[in-house]
Specification:
heterodimer; A: 700 residues; alpha/beta; eight-stranded mixed sheet; 10% strand; globular; disordered C terminus; B: 485 residues; seven-stranded mixed sheet; three-stranded antiparallel sheet; 39% helix; elongated; signal (chain B); GPI_transamidase (chain B); GPI-anchor biosynthesis (chain B)
Chain lengths: 700, 485
């Protein structure tokens, strides 16, 4: 067939037998319409099938050996935890000052015989830094002009040096708590953290140091942990101004604790370090009370869709399920759990897989409808949080330093006020954490065996990069083919003009991208202006952006008409394909979601005024174009998602500003994707849709 | 010159006969040399508390040497590099065997102990400076009198080969050398991570079956052992000594010929059979004469080998110590030790009873032994001939045997039920009896001569004897000078 197609071309006489790959390429280009429909459909179907293709997780690193040692965490440690919990609740209630708990914790740490110090810092708000994407160390240099003295945060940190270890590596435990409003579960989580710490202070098997950070999360736990990590990794100069300011603040503000400081000596503020961090665990306790079993929620997503090594999740899951009998949950989007179409899809897939299994028993695509629904909901949440690029907890701060970290959130089956429930719960959680630490302690190297790029579809199921890249690849495969088809058809029709007409189109595309880039940097300028509310910021942003766009079009009008819409579309598609491919490397989930919107839009878009045979076909084309153009506009997409996933409340234009603010304050690459790739592509598509359609009359 | 020819030819014939017989005598004497000492080389080759050797994410090697309940087999175990989890047990294996052979009588100076890592002092060890091979923690294998000869990064393939072949740097102390001789029985025990025809040393090197075969061949050539028992506890252990047989026989034309003719008992042919096949060999002419020595040695290399698992099989650990958090002993070694725990150094349990004690079901692998290079029937070989030591004590009245011992007393002792009266530890009943007879004979002849001389001294005048002797010496001197002239 390929040979036959080739025969149609005019070059048959010159080289009847060109290379196979060229002929195949030509065949694909000639049938670009069919290819793009098939590829798009296949890509989306394969994406929907991901929960079916998920594999069971396994512990890849042999050295971890989870659960091979009996936990030493006993009722003695439970008593320790209870003692601290009660102390915190009593003292915290008596004095509501922020540092009371930190002082208490330090007393406890010192009593155990471990090293201890206070870490203190003044939290600063994250600001928009146009050039700080992907760099982990933000605002190191800009000090607040006038640091308010009441707002410093004091964390108690304890370090156990491994008795026979070499001190090169360390495992970090973080227990966030709110010092202003200490809840009961906060106190319990501190109790667990301390009981493990005190247990580890006298075990003989430590090969890595243990650092326990009791992070005061008054201004957000991420900020606290991030600032501690920054100090841990950054060099500390004694003459640093911020430190002096902090010191002054601290000493002035806490005259009541001054005597205490004098007793302890200034040494208690000297920042101490242990070795390189091998792994970090963030422990939290929440009182949900509606479970039938004690449960563990694992949060792993860090910024820009980075994940910790799958082995870390695996050992936590293995120990929780097979040793401590906890129920392990990971985040899922409730909408998908309830949506009837997902259920229907699941039932269909169940039928198909049973049929497939009857054909060949070796195929292991065995999935029940319920599993599929749950897998889809979990996968959706996994993709959503990765695509958002915002960490799901303070473990995200560790990922900035390439440290594998997860948040383990425990929730008891009934209220923790019950003594028996609490002891059983503490015993389980303590043993689980001890087991994880002992596993990590066995490591000789960093985590490297298992996956870093994966989605979870269940706590024990994952989709690896090798599988999820395939749907994406299929989805964006038609883009270059269609671009080539459009380009060649246009060149074929107007051969005499020479082939340099595409430069006009390229100029248009380039300028639109430039406009998008300027738009993305506008908030930096706007933030300098004294605008009050988020909605005014948002409207100012939109107004300025539209102004710039209009100016651009005034410049470009002639050339954009001149080059013809097909060439414009062809170059736009190429730009979109390059952008999506780049984004898939940076943050795959964003690229995947973006591709699902952009690719059909790019492929389908046609001028509205273009003549086509048949009213029905034209109407179909028009409606699909319009629908895609609406859906693919980022604010519109956000609105639709909001209504779809049941977020209530009135829609305010300020929401967009706040949303964008979240993205840039977390240094999310999704912001760049939206404004550098998605938005210009959408504008160009709109441009093509509204194309006057005077000159061109090609049949493509 | 020409006149001397007949006599010279005669002389040459005589000389030739002598030359011909010398190697025969020498080699037969080396063959017949007694088993008079025991050596043990115990090697643990694996490093690190727990191994993390593996391939890439997503491609899973099967775990080997681990507890069956963790056995998540994704592809078959035939992949070249087997991946194990727990290396503690290798040290525990080796130390347990060290303890056993010491208990059964091999002294420390005849044990070369090679340990690739110091698990006892590993910071992950729950019991600092102690090593256990059982979760009951009753027996600390790393007690006060453990003498490790090669430790840590000293345990390399090179050093191992040097120990076996005895090619050391002059600076290497005697305690680190295998000073065995043609009468030695050597136990070579190796454990670690292995695969098809290799054994991993440390994390960087491999001992291949060819290397081992070469070392054994060199040892044989250098008369460094009489009998050698190779015991290997790794995955696919049986593959490690695949090359030993071929290396020992292949490059020798006659033996390989013989092997082709009589494949079953080439290796098992003893000196007694030699006479019967002598004419056959002589038919090939004198061209093969220099090879006779080889034939005689290679008739019976005396190499016995046993491995914990066949090709394609894993060697599993026996149980996990939940305090230390690792497996502490391998199944093969565990059952070997269980066998030896019942024995003391006087027991007569045979090697075949040891080899038959391995149950493939409890071992979860097939213990494979080959004895085609070994001629003694296994049921007659006591385990103590490798795992114990020859300790022969012959009762004498005085501290030194010499002129003062009258033969009468000896005669009194020997005819009586000698087994009871002689204080002797019977390790090797057969050989020892043979040896004893030989010594007895030598003993008697020597004493007869002495007695004769003594009688002469008593009866005749010593001065007369001296004169006669002097006269004879002068006479001999003159004759010899005349002959030379």
């Amino acid at each position: 067939m390929a040979v036959k197609e080739e025969g149609d071309t005019s070059q048959q006489g010159k080289k009847s037998r060109s290379r196979l790959i060229l002929r195949l390429g030509a065949l694909l280009v000639a049938h670009s319409g069919l290819v793009s429909v098939v590829c798009c459909a296949a890509g989306i179907i394969a994406f929907i099938l991901l929960p079916v293709l998920a594999n069971n997780t396994y512990i890849s690193e042999n050295a971890l050996m989870p659960g091979s040692a009996d936990p030493a965490f006993s009722s003695q440690e439970v008593l320790d935890a209870n003692r601290l919990t009660m102390d915190i609740l009593n003292r915290g209630a008596a004095k509501a000052s922020g540092i009371e708990i930190a002082k208490l914790l330090r007393e406890y740490i010192v009593a155990v015989g471990a090293e201890s110090y206070y870490h203190k810092f003044v939290p600063r708000a994250n600001k928009f830094h146009p050039l700080h994407f992907f760099s982990s160390t933000t605002d190191n240099l800009d000090l607040p002009a006038n640091p308010s003295c009441g707002s410093f945060i004091l964390n108690a940190v304890g370090i156990i040096r491994a008795p026979r270890g070499d001190g090169k590596e360390t495992i970090v435990l973080v227990t966030p708590y709110n010092s202003q409003n200490t809840t009961y579960s906060d106190a319990v989580s501190l109790g667990i953290g301390f009981s493990i710490f005190s247990l580890l202070s006298h075990v003989t098997w430590l090969a890595k140091d243990i650092v326990w950070l009791a992070a005061d999360s008054r201004y957000g736990e991420y900020t606290t942990v991030d600032s501690w990590l920054k100090d841990y990794h950054g060099p500390a100069f004694p003459g640093e101004t911020s430190r002096i300011v902090d010191d002054a603040c601290f000493e002035e503000n806490n005259s009541d604790s001054l005597d205490h400081i004098k007793v302890e000596g200034h040494n208690s503020y000297v920042y101490k370090r242990a070795g390189t961090m091998a792994a970090a665990l963030v422990l939290k306790v929440v009182d949900k009370k509606e479970e039938e079993r004690d449960s563990l929620s694992i949060y792993a997503e860090a910024s820009n869709g980075q994940m910790p090594n799958l082995d870390l999740i695996n050992i936590a899951h293995y120990l929780a399920v097979h040793r401590q009998g906890l129920r392990v949950k990971i985040g899922s989007i409730i909408y998908f759990l309830k949506a009837s179409w997902v259920k229907l899809l699941g039932e269909m897939l169940q039928h198909i897989t049973t049929l497939a299994k009857r054909l060949n028993p070796k195929w292991k695509f065995d999935i029940t409808s319920a599993d599929y629904v749950e897998g889809t909901a979990t996968l959706a949440s996994s993709i959503y949080y990765q695509a958002l690029g915002v960490p799901t907890g303070s473990h995200g701060a560790f990922r900035n330093y390439q440290v594998d970290a997860v948040t383990l959130e425990f929730s008891p089956r009934s209220s923790l006020n019950n003594e028996n429930v609490r002891s059983a719960f503490l015993l389980k959680t303590g043993r689980l954490i001890e087991g994880v630490i002992r596993s990590v302690n066995n490591l000789l190297e960093k985590f490297h065996q298992s996956f870093f790029l994966y989605f979870l579809t269940a706590p024990h199921k994952y989709v690896s990069v090798g599988i999820y890249m395939i749907p994406f690849g299929i989805l964006i495969a038609p883009l270059p083919i269609v671009a080539a088809a459009l380009f060649s058809s246009n060149n074929g029709s107007s051969n005499k003009d020479g082939s340099w007409k595409w430069l006009q189109a390229a100029k248009v595309v380039f300028l639109i991208h430039l406009w998008a880039m300027i738009t993305s940097l506008l908030p930096y300028v706007l933030l300098q202006l004294p605008l009050g509310t988020p909605s005014s910021f948002a409207s100012a942003w939109a107004a300025v952006a539209i102004c710039f766009l209009l100016i651009t079009y005034l410049i470009l009008w002639s050339s954009s008409i001149d080059c013809g819409w097909e060439l414009l579309k062809s170059v736009m598609i190429v730009a979109a394909a390059i952008g999506l491919s780049l984004m898939s490397v940076i943050n795959f989930s964003t690229a995947q979601i973006g591709a699902m919107l952009i690719v059909p839009m790019c492929l389908l878009v046609k001028p509205a005024r273009k003549q086509t045979q048949g009213v029905f076909a034209k109407a179909l084309m028009l409606t699909s174009n319009l629908a895609l153009l609406v859906v693919a506009f980022p604010p519109a997409a956000l609105l639709i998602a909001k209504t779809l996933f049941g977020a209530s409340g009135n829609i305010d234009i300020g929401d967009f500003w706040e949303w964008a603010q979240i993205l840039w304050s977390w240094n999310s690459a999704t912001y760049m994707y939206l404004l550098w790739i998605h938005l210009p592509c959408w504008v160009l598509c709109l441009n093509i849709f509204l194309y006057p359609c005077i000159g061109s009359s090609s049949k493509a | 010159m020409a006149t001397r020819d007949p006599s010279m030819i005669c002389c040459f014939r005589l000389l030739f006969l002598l030359l011909f017989s010398v190697p025969l005598i020498a080699s037969s004497s080396s063959w017949a040399s007694m088993h008079h000492n025991n050596w043990a080389v115990l090697v643990c080759t694996s490093r690190y508390w727990s191994d993390s050797e593996s391939g890439y994410p997503g491609f899973k090697f099967s775990f080997c040497n681990k507890l069956p309940r963790y056995h998540i087999e994704i592809n078959s175990c035939n992949s070249k590099l087997e991946v194990e989890r727990f290396n503690y047990r290798h040290m525990a294996n080796t130390l347990s065997l060290y303890r056993t052979v010491k208990r059964l009588g091999i002294p420390d100076e005849r044990i070369i102990l090679m340990l690739a890592d110091d698990m006892a002092c590993n910071m992950r060890n729950n019991y600092p400076a102690q090593v256990f091979n059982n979760e009951n923690h009753q027996l600390n294998l790393y007690g006060d009198n453990v003498e490790v000869d090669y430790r840590g990064y000293e345990v390399t393939v090179e050093n191992f080969m040097r120990v076996l072949t005895g090619r050391h740097d002059p600076a290497v102390p005697r305690s680190k050398r295998l000073l065995s001789d043609e009468g030695s029985h050597i136990l070579l025990y190796m454990t670690g991570h292995g695969g098809d025809e290799f054994l991993k040393f440390q994390d960087s090197e491999e001992l291949q079956s060819h290397d081992l075969a070469d070392a054994v061949k060199q040892m044989k050539e250098k008369n460094r052992f009489k009998e050698l028992l190779i015991m290997v506890d790794t995955c696919q252990a049986a593959t490690l000594f695949n090359q030993v047989l071929s290396s020992l026989i292949s490059d020798d034309p006659i033996c390989s010929l013989h092997y082709a003719l009589l494949p079953h008992d080439c290796a098992a042919t003893s000196v007694l059979d030699f006479g019967s096949s002598m004419s056959q060999y002589l038919a090939y002419g004198y061209a093969f004469l220099p090879a006779f020595k080889h034939i005689l040695i290679l008739q019976s290399p005396g190499v016995l080998a046993i491995g914990s698992s066949m090709k394609g099989e894993n060697s599993y650990s026996h149980h996990l110590d939940s305090d230390i958090g690792v497996s502490v002993v391998d199944r093969f070694t565990y059952y070997t030790l269980a066998f030896f725990e019942k024995l003391n150094m006087y027991s007569n349990a045979s090697l075949s009873s040891l080899f038959n004690s391995y149950n493939p079901r409890t071992l979860m692998s097939t213990a494979y032994y080959r004895m085609d290079l070994y001629q003694r029937p296994l049921p007659e070989v006591p385990v103590t001939s490798f795992f114990g030591s020859v300790m022969k004590t012959i009762h004498t009245d005085a501290a030194y045997m010499g002129l003062s011992i009258p033969p009468k007393t000896e005669a009194q002792f020997l005819p009586g039920d000698g087994g009871n009266h002689q204080l002797r530890i019977e390790n090797e009943p057969d050989l020892e009896k043979d040896g004893n007879k030989q010594t007895k004979e030598l003993h008697c002849i020597y004493h007869e001569w002495l007695n004769l001389l003594q009688e002469r001294f008593e009866n005749t005048d010593a001065e007369l004897l001296f004169r006669y002797g002097f006269g004879t010496m002068v006479f001999l001197l003159t004759i010899s000078t005349w002959l030379l002239a």
